[in-house]
Amino acid sequence: MRADTRHGRPRRPTLFPYRPGPRAAHRAAVLALVAAVAGCAAPADPGAPPGGGATGGAQGPAARAAAPQHLPERPRRHTSRALPRRLPGLGPRTLARLPAHTRQALLVTGTGRNTSSARAVLYTRSAQGWRPGATWPARNARDGWTDDHHADDLRTPIGVFTLTDAGGRRPAPGTRLPYDRSNAFTATGRGFNGESLAGSFDYVIAIDYNRRPGTSPLDWRRPLGAARGGGIWLHVDHDGPTHGCIALSEQHMKELLHLLDPARHPVIVMGDAASLER
Fold first, then answer.
1. Confidence at 81, pLDDT banded by 50, 70, 90
2. 159 plus 210 within the same structural domain
3. GO terms for biological process (predicted)?
4. Which of 235, 238, 243, 252 is catalytic?
5. pLDDT digit string, tens, across residues 13-27
6. How remote is the C-alpha of 188 from its chain's centroid?
7. pLDDT tens digit string along 26-42?
8. What is the pTM (predicted TM-score) of this model?
9. Among 17, 90, 121, 254, which is disulfide-ready with 173 (CB 3.0 to 4.6 Å)?
10. Judgement on whether residues 128 and 25 belong to the same structural domain of the protein
11. 235 is catalytic
12. HSE (side-chain half, CA atoms, 13 Å) at 117
C-alpha cells in the first residue's frame, strides 16, 4: 500500500496496487473484490442465475468478463392444472342428461350400488372447464341406488336432476334459491341406526325428481304418480342412512345453500360410481 499526499492531505490507501491492463479485466477485478467483501456471489448480469454458471460454482474475473450480457430467459413453468372439460367419472349416457346451459353441478358419487355412503363435490363451469370445490362426505338411502325408483324401496334414484327450490325449519342461512321457511319441516322418530331424526329438515334443498320445479319442497304433487315416490331432498345428516334422500352435514348444507345460484342452472348428478360411468 502507498499513501498519496497530494494537496497536503494523505489519501485513503488503495486496497490493491494498480496494475495496467484492459479496462474489462479491471472492472471484473473490482466486482470480484466487492463480492468477496459482501460474502455472496453477486452475478454481473442482474438476469443471470445466482451462484455462478450452470454448475452452480463461483465464476472468476476472466469468466465474468467473457460472459454474455443477456442470458436467454428460462421457460416459465405452469403450476396450475388444466380444468377438466367435462365432469369426471361420468360416461356418455350420464353426460347426455346434463343440460347444456348448466354451470353448477353437485356430483354425488356412491361407494357401491348397495351401500349408503357417498361423497359430494360441487363443480362450477367456466370457459376454462369445470372447477371442483371441496369434497364432502354424504349419505344416501339404506339399500343403495336404483335406476327405477318407487315409493318405499329404500333406494336413491340415479340420474341428473335440477335444483330449484329450498326451505327448512330454520331461517335461510343466506341463499339465492327460493326458500320456504316453515315449521312443517319437522322430522320426528328414529333412523335405521336408532339415531334421532330431529333437525334433519332444518335445511332442505328439493331434488327435482317426480315434483314440480318452482314450488316449495313441501309441495307433494307427483307428476309421475305417487307410486314412483317423491320427496327426495338434500337435507341435514342425522348420522344414519336415509329413506331415499341425500344427507350432508349441517355446515355443508349451509355452504351449499350459499353457493347455489339459479342463474347458473344448478343440477345434482347422483348415483353409484359404476352407474355414473355408463
1. confident
2. yes
3. cell wall organization; peptidoglycan biosynthetic process; regulation of cell shape
4. 235
5. 443 344 444 444 444
6. 36
7. 444 433 333 333 333 33
8. 0.71
9. 254
10. no
11. yes
12. 3
